[in-house]
What does this fold into?
Amino acid sequence: MSPFKARYGQEPLPLLRGTTIPSRIEEINPHTQQRDSLLKELRENLLKAQDQIKRYVDRHRQDVELEVRNCNHIK
It folds into this structure.
């Protein structure tokens, strides 16, 4: 469940890309293109941050092997 859905009880509306469906009002198109480029940059930054976090966590990760023992004495 996304944080948005947890708070508002529904999924957020999808953002349509301005370059996919241009507006008939010409003044709006530069704003939607700017928004699209901002969203692309944000997405790239999120992926970069996720990768950095994963690399940091992987440096401290250890493989752990657990041994299964007979536990007949536990009731």
Summary: The CA atoms of residues 10 and 56 lie 34 Å apart.
